């Protein structure tokens, strides 16, 4: 009998696939398995994963820590906790569904493999570019798409006066609140909602916009770039871009104009978003070519651009890290 496919276990055991799903390269782990994973010898269920315990694929569903409740209802919030308060207890709410590795900062288990809390240098590079002596002291930072709060945690440790982090995913937002309480973040505020709607409402000015891992999930990325330019003079960006020589998904081209800036959008439609999906809140995402991405920031006034990294061969698609600012705005 063929084993059932365990989406969560597959993504936990294959962090490269989890990153690809997050980036929109695959609709789900199941899609990756059907296209590539089966032929690559990657296990389809928990029983087949290296080092997995014997028995049916249930490890991701129920907390495995000592004293964890035996019952595991379909709705993880419809239960009462029996253990004394601890970081592990809070993290176990989403046990098996974390993308980030929280073990180093909280000493817990049951989280993911992506080192967003430690080992990810994007917040530090932003501080080096837009701060003073590698610090963000005194700065009000707007973070777009915090996911699980890993970069937020680092931005606070780098001295930011305030961090306002806007997240559209309900699950990710709740994870951020777990992180805020367990790590004791004092200057960070998480907001649940759409970043376009938030920026369009005119939230005020920020010293820095930290925009990592969100542009390539937008159906209208130039509209987001335009709105970013209305609230800041300095923006740190990490995003994928379109290059036909390195792509796993079928993209269709369409010409789009925002405030007299015309470019080509390379769009794709998301598939199943019901399990372990960390992408955008719309059904479609559009990628820009690298030259169009840079030109868009220039068009809307953030024309002083430094490309920090440009990885054209990354397995999940080409990506770029850049600092864009209004001329003369950097400290």
CATH architecture of the largest domain: 3-Layer(aba) Sandwich
- Mean pLDDT across the residues is 85
Using the coordinates above, name the CATH class of the largest domain: Alpha Beta
The helix/strand order is HHHHHHEHEHEHEHEEEEHEE
SSE blueprint:
Blueprint (H helix, E strand, L loop, with lengths): L6 H7 L1 H8 L6 H12 L46 H5 L11 H4 L15 H9 L9 E5 L5 H8 L4 E6 L2 H14 L4 E5 L2 H6 L7 E5 L8 H11 L2 E7 L11 E7 L2 E9 L14 E4 L2 H10 L4 E8 L7 E7 L6
Parallel strand pairs: 1-2, 1-4, 2-3, 4-5
Antiparallel strand pairs: 5-10, 6-7, 7-8, 9-10
Helix pairs in contact: 1-2, 6-7
Plain-language structure description:
The chain has 331 residues and is of the alpha/beta class. The protein folds into 2 domains: 54 residues, no CATH class; 204 residues, Vaccinia Virus protein VP39 (Rossmann fold). The strands form 2 sheets. It has a 7-stranded mixed sheet with strand order 3-2-1-4-5-10-9, sandwiched between helices. The longest helix is centred in the middle third of the chain and has 14 residues. The radius of gyration is 20 Å and the shape is globular. The N and C termini lie far apart (64 Å). About 9% of the residues have low confidence.
Outline of the structure:
This protein is α/β, with parallel strands linked by helices and 331 residues long. The protein has eleven helices and ten strands. It has two domains: 7-60, no CATH class; 122-325, 3-Layer(aba) Sandwich (Rossmann fold), CATH 3.40.50.
């Amino acid at each position: 009998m063929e084993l059932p496919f365990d989406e969560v276990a597959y993504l936990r055991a294959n962090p490269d696939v989890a990153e690809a799903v997050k980036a929109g390269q695959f609709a789900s782990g199941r899609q990756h398995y059907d296209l590539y994973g089966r032929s690559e010898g990657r296990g389809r269920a928990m029983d087949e994963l290296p080092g997995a315990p014997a028995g049916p694929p249930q490890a991701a569903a129920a907390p495995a820590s000592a004293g964890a409740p035996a019952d595991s209802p379909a709705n993880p919030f419809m239960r009462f906790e029996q253990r004394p308060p601890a970081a592990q207890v809070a993290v176990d709410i989403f046990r098996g569904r974390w993308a980030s590795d929280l073990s180093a900062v909280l000493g817990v288990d049951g989280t993911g493999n992506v080192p967003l809390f430690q080992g990810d240098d994007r917040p530090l590079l932003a501080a080096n570019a837009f701060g003073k002596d590698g610090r963000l002291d005194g700065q009000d930072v707007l973070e777009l798409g915090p996911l699980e709060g890993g970069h937020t945690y680092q931005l606070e440790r780098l001295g930011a006066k305030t961090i306002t982090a806007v997240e559209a995913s309900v699950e990710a937002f709740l994870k951020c609140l777990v992180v805020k309480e367990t790590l004791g973040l004092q200057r960070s505020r998480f907001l649940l909602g759409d970043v376009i709607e938030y920026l369009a409402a005119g939230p005020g000015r920020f010293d820095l916009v930290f925009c990592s891992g969100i542009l390539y999930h937008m159906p209208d990325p130039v509209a987001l770039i335009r709105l970013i330019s209305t609230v800041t003079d300095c923006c740190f960006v990490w995003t994928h871009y379109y290059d036909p020589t390195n792509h796993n998904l079928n993209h269709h081209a369409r010409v789009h104009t925002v405030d007299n800036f015309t470019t080509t959008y390379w769009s794709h439609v998301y598939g199943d978003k019901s399990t372990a999906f960390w992408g955008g809140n719309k059904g479609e995402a559009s990628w820009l070519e690298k030259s169009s991405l840079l030109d868009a920031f220039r068009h809307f006034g953030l024309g002083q651009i430094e490309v920090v990294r440009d990885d054209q061969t990354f397995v999940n698609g080409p990506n770029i890290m850049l600092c864009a600012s209004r001329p003369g705005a950097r400290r």
